[in-house]
Amino acid sequence: MAIQWYPGHMHKAQKQVKEVLPQVDLVIEVLDARLPYSSLNPMINDLSKTKPRIKVLSKTDLADPELTQQWQDYYTAQGIKTLLVSTTDPGRAKQLPDLCRKLLPDTNQYRTINAMIMGIPNVGKSTLINTLMGRAITKVGNEPAVTKGQQKINLRNGIILWDTPGMLWPKVENEHSGYRLGVSGAIKDTAMEYEDIAFYAIDYLIAAYPEALKARYELESVPATALECLEMIGAKRGCKRAGGRVNLHKVSELLIFEFRSGQLGPITLETPAMIAVEMAEVALQAEKKAENKYVRGKKPRRR
Questions:
Q1: DSSP state, 95?
Q2: pLDDT in tens, 103-145
C-alpha cells in the first residue's frame, strides 16, 4: 500500500533531530511489538547510527508472546539492546534508566545522560514517558501525530529525555509494511481506505490466527477467502446495508478497531522469517527499477 501521509511537522522534526543529535548520548527507539520491523523508521537508523541505541518493544500485551521472543532474539543477535514494555506491566519501563547507564559504562556517575526517544506515530512513546515520570506530562491519544514538537523532560534520576514527534518516512519501500502500519494505527485513518487494510489483515489472520477469528466472532469454521470471512463477520455483527447486504466499510472498521484494541487476542503481524523474504523481494524490485532506468537512459532521444 502506498502511504500518502508525511505531514510538514514530521519533516521539520527530522531537521531538528539532526541539529540536536550531537548533544545526545544515546537513542531510545520505540517499536510496536506487533510489527517490530515495519515500525522501524529507517531514517532513525541513518540519523543515529553513531550513537548507542536501545530498541523498546511497546504494546507487548497486544502481541504474540512467542513471536515477541523471536524478535527480541533477532535484535539481540545483532548486538542491539532491547526492552519489552506494556501498559499492563509498568514495572518493565522502570528498567530503562538502568539500561541507559549500562550502555554508557564510562559515563561519570554524576553527569547527566541525554537520551533522545524516537519512533513512528502512535507507537507508545508518550505512554512510556508518562510511566517513567509516574504522572501524565505528555499527551496520549489513540491516533497518530499527537506530539507535534520536541520537548526536554528531566526524569530526576540523572537522565534527560529529548522527546520527538512520531516520524514516518517519505516512502515505505516494502508494500507489506505499509499495510501493517495502516492496520496498527500508525497512519492517520483519513490517509487510507479501511477496506484495503482490512482485506490485508483478514488474509493474514486466516492463515496465522484462524482460532482467534473463530473465538472472537463465534465462527464454526474460517472461510478460505478474505471477502467470505469479512461478510461472515459482518453478518454476525449486524454490519448490513438496507436490503440485508453486508456493509464492507463498516465491518472493516470493526475488524481494525478490534485488532488495535486487542480484542482479537495477542497478535503479531510479522516474523523475522517473513521480513527476510520481503526484503529480498524489495531488493529485487529496486534492482529491476535501476535496470529499467539505465535502459531508458541509454535510448537515443527523439528529435
A1: G
A2: 987 776 668 899 999 999 889 998 999 998 887 776 555 554 4
* Length of the chain, in residues: 303
pLDDT for res 157: 84
Structural domain containing residue 222:
193-260
143, 223: one domain: no
User: Is residue 251 located within the same domain as residue 139?
Assistant: no
Using a CB cutoff of 8 Å and minimum separation of 24, what contacts does 207-213 make? 208/267, 209/264, 209/265, 209/267, 212/264, 212/265, 212/267, 213/264
Q: How many Å is the Cα radius of gyration of the chain?
A: 21
Are 112 and 227 found together in one domain?
no
| pLDDT of amino acid 73 | 96
Based on the fold, state whether residues 148 and 231 are members of the same structural domain. Answer: no
What is the C-alpha to C-alpha distance for residues 200 and 202, in angstroms, rounded to an integer?
6
Cβ(142)–Cβ(185) below 8 Å: yes
Q: What would the grid cell of residue 24 be?
A: 545526545
| Whole-Å CA distances, 178 to 58, 95, 173, 274 | 19, 32, 8, 15
The mean pLDDT value for 296-301 works out to 68
Residues of the chain by 3-state class (helix, strand, coil), percent to 5: 50, 10, 40
pLDDT at 145: 45
Whichever domain contains 60, its CATH number is 3.40.50.300
Q: How many domains does the chain have?
A: 2
Contact (Cβ atoms closer than 8 angstroms) between residue 64 and residue 36: no
Q: What is the rounded average pLDDT for all residues in the chain?
A: 87
Q: Parallel, antiparallel, or unpaired for β 151-154 and 159-163?
A: antiparallel
Which has more confidence, 148 or 102? 102
Quote the pLDDT of residue 144: 47
CA end-to-end distance (rounded Å), the chain: 38
